[in-house]
Design goal:
single chain, alpha/beta, five-stranded antiparallel beta sheet, 34% helix, 20% strand, globular
Length: 385
């Protein structure tokens, strides 16, 4: 019997130039976390850690790096030290957010995360925050913004309330052009739905302190008091309109080649894919947990439970996506009746190159050299321009 895997904590990188609204967005996530336990690494540039003070007290596990850019001043082993603190079982965190310095190099931060030796973390995406009102001026001051957008998994076009509608459309089109397949979400005051970045935590009854107003509840009530249109539930209830979610279920196994071709050609704006895939004769013993965020892709096999119904169940999240086209594309990935088992097993190599090495060790045919290259492929796929 394969021992159960320790759940991995997604690590989200929150980047953007000075004044774009990163801290405002982070505070919004903390205020609308719906019971999700968030750990924060705040990376400030300079000795006075204003950003760290801004989020202070809103999350129990804030680690402030300070004194320079994370990508310049902290190597991968030092970052691992901070991540080790936040991933201890006693911290009981569900997600970790790194708020990068406005002068940080996002691509290097992603590489550091992917190079981490911590088995308890999982790359959760690079979120680039852009100031809509200052976009053109920021590009003039920082031409590297184009490069940052090109490697982002999700772009938040923030402060859209400060520009006219025609200008918003122009900016959105330009940002989408620069960011390629990344999803682009418009926002005011950093308000985006937390479910874009991480799944809400499901707590056993009684685990959270019921019947008492939390700090989060008090902050939301303050926001309601300041906005007459608030109905008492806060702004988060209206944020789902900014993105789409598509569910897919199939009781027929998926063809590995067709499914990987679908993933390789997934449309622009599709930010996250999560769920489980049944590859039938490709691996009769396991279902495959799928985690895709932006360009990053990973499969983790798990033995089928006794009596478990063999299904493929996926959820796709993005902005401006065609739900019907996605569903049709996945339906076309279903395996034909009576496939050749040996051919299907060979086709599984396209899947196995995105399986972490420890989970891949159970496949007797795995070649060592190809296995080493597969992890490099996963890392490059997440940060390619």
């Amino acid at each position: 019997m394969t021992p159960p895997r320790t759940p991995q904590i997604p690590v989200v990188v929150l980047a953007g130039f000075l004044g774009s609204g990163k801290t405002t967005l982070l505070n919004h996530l903390l205020r609308n976390r719906a019971g999700t336990r968030i750990g924060v690494i705040v990376n400030d540039f300079g000795a006075i850690e204003i950003d760290a003070m801004t989020v202070s007290g809103q999350v129990g596990s804030t680690v402030s790096l300070g004194n320079g850019c994370l990508c310049c001043a902290v190597d991968a082993s030092e970052l691992d030290t901070f991540l080790e603190t936040l991933t201890r079982p006693s911290a009981r965190l569900d997600v970790i957010v790194i708020e990068a310095s406005g002068l940080a190099e996002p691509q290097e931060l992603v590489r550091m995360l992917l190079a981490s030796d911590n088995p308890h973390i999982l790359y959760g995406g690079l979120v680039e925050v852009v100031d809509a009102a200052e976009f053109d001026a920021t590009r003039q001051r920082h031409p590297e913004l184009d490069r940052h957008l090109a490697v982002a998994d999700l772009v938040v076009l923030n402060k859209t309330d400060r520009v006219e509608e025609d200008e918003r459309e122009r900016l959105r089109a330009r940002v989408a052009e620069l960011s390629g397949p990344a999803a682009v979400i418009s926002a005011e005051h950093g308000r985006i739905d937390p479910e874009l970045l991480f799944d809400p935590a499901l707590r056993p009854d009684g685990e959270e302190m019921a019947g008492q107003l939390s700090f989060e509840d008090l902050l939301r009530q303050e926001e309601c008091d300041e906005h007459e249109e608030c109905d008492g539930h806060g702004h988060a209830d209206h944020l789902h309109a900014a993105y789409e979610s598509v569910d897919f279920t199939a009781d027929v196994p998926m063809d590995p080649r067709r499914f990987m071709a679908f993933l390789d050609s997934r449309p622009e704006g599709l930010y996250r894919i999560k769920g489980f895939v049944d590859f039938g004769t490709g691996d009769r013993d396991n279902t495959y947990a799928l985690h895709a965020v932006g360009r990053f892709l990973r499969f983790v096999p798990r033995p089928w439970a006794r009596g478990e119904q063999r299904l493929t169940q996926l959820v796709m999240i993005g902005a401006g996506i065609d739900a019907e086209a996605l569903a049709a594309g996945l339906a076309a990935c279903r395996a034909e009746p009576g496939p050749d088992a040996a051919d299907t097993e060979r086709a599984m190599w396209g899947v196995l190159r995105y399986v972490p090495e420890p989970a891949r060790e159970g496949h007797a045919e795995a070649d060592g050299a190809e296995a080493d290259g597969a992890e490099a492929d996963v890392q490059e796929a997440a940060v390619e321009a």
